[in-house]
Design a protein that fits this description.
Elements: E1 2-3, H1 10-30, E2 36-42, E3 48-54, H2 56-69, E4 74-83, E5 86-97, E6 100-116, H3 120-158, H4 165-174, H5 176-191, H6 194-211, E7 214-219, E8 224-225, H7 227-231, E9 236-248, E10 253-255, H8 265-283, H9 285-301, H10 304-311
Parallel strand pairs: 8-9
Antiparallel strand pairs: 1-9, 2-3, 4-5, 5-6, 6-7, 6-9, 9-10
């Protein structure tokens, strides 16, 4: 059962209110992890331009800190997925309250754009690749001309030089020896152009080198989106929540349908209280993030390497 619920009874209204508040608090809280910065990037034609990006790793850090602060909740860890340029970072937490299984899904979805790092070597590589491509075309043209001449001569030696194309094709299909002999001659022709292999090796090496200069820029709209928009590929911040019934306490088999009328008042109150506590923890995330950053900085300053630098 996906929250918010469509009912109008007291439990549905209170649960929807608690969920709505948690959704807003999560959105406000994670925005600090989506801060953008402007960087210089290079386009394929060598043009240098500005691009805006954010660091998805900050959201991973956010979710890990959140998981460390939660009591009574289990989590599935941070997961990452992507389809072409569309990326998603997900974090799921869950707990069982009596016979009800609560799962909360935190998501961000964003685009990844590829550029070159600003470096003159990129232009140099592109120029070298262009020259090699031109040279490769010239060699292939020469190879094709020489190869055609040899094939015609070889067919003449076999006595098939004057055969119409259709008859020659039928002859080659029925006699594999003809094809084998022509293939051997083609290999001989290619062996006479060792510079072609040199060009191909250099092209592969340059392609690998220029690939090292490719960088990714991550873009996201800091807006709240629902589950449907998330599945449709829109970018933004999403939160959704499910409630299921555990039918068998031993096997933990669950079913998605939940009869609201069967939820006892005390069970409903436990669910809502759990969400309210979760919302309180999320609202303190900026404080937890600052504390972790402070601890990490202090740890770095007191590392053996830092102490050695201080003494020197």
């Amino acid at each position: 059962m996906r929250v918010p619920l469509k009912g109008s009874d007291k439990f549905c209204l209170e649960l929807n209110s608690a969920y709505s508040k948690m959704e807003q608090v999560y959105f406000d809280s994670i925005k600090s992890s989506l801060k953008t910065s402007t960087i210089k990037v290079m386009l394929g034609d060598g043009t240098i331009t500005d691009s805006v990006t954010f660091d998805p790793q900050e959201t991973v850090r956010y979710f890990n800190i959140l998981g460390g602060r939660l009591k009574g909740w289990s989590n599935s860890g941070v997961s990452k997925s992507n389809t072409e340029d569309l990326h998603r970072v997900s974090y799921q937490i869950y707990k069982q309250l009596e016979k009800y299984y609560i799962s909360v899904h935190f998501e961000i979805q964003f685009h990844s754009l590829k550029f070159y790092r600003v470096d003159k070597r990129v232009l140099e590589i592109q120029k070298e690749i262009h020259e090699l491509s031109r040279k490769s075309i010239e060699i292939h043209q020469s190879l094709a001309k020489t190869g055609n001449e040899i094939v015609v001569r070889e067919l003449g030696n076999m006595g098939y030089g004057d055969l119409p194309f259709e008859d020659l094709l039928e002859k080659m299909l029925s006699d594999q020896n003809i094809s084998s002999q022509l293939e051997d001659k083609a290999k001989e022709v290619r062996s006479k152009y060792p510079e072609l292999r040199e060009v191909e090796i250099k092209e592969r090496a340059l392609a690998a080198e220029i690939n090292d200069y490719i960088m990714e820029v991550y873009t996201i709209d800091p807006v709240a989106i629902d589950y449907n928009k998330l599945m449709q590929g829109e970018v933004g911040v999403a939160l959704y929540m499910d409630i299921e019934v555990v039918n068998n306490m031993k096997s933990k088999v669950r079913q998605a349908y939940v009869n609201i009328e069967n939820i006892k008042a005390e069970s409903g109150k436990s669910i809502i209280n759990s969400l309210e506590k979760l919302t309180g923890i999320i609202s303190d995330m900026e404080k937890w993030q600052r504390e972790e950053l402070s601890l990490n900085t202090a740890s770095q300053n007191t590392s053996p390497e830092s102490e050695f630098k201080d003494r020197s």
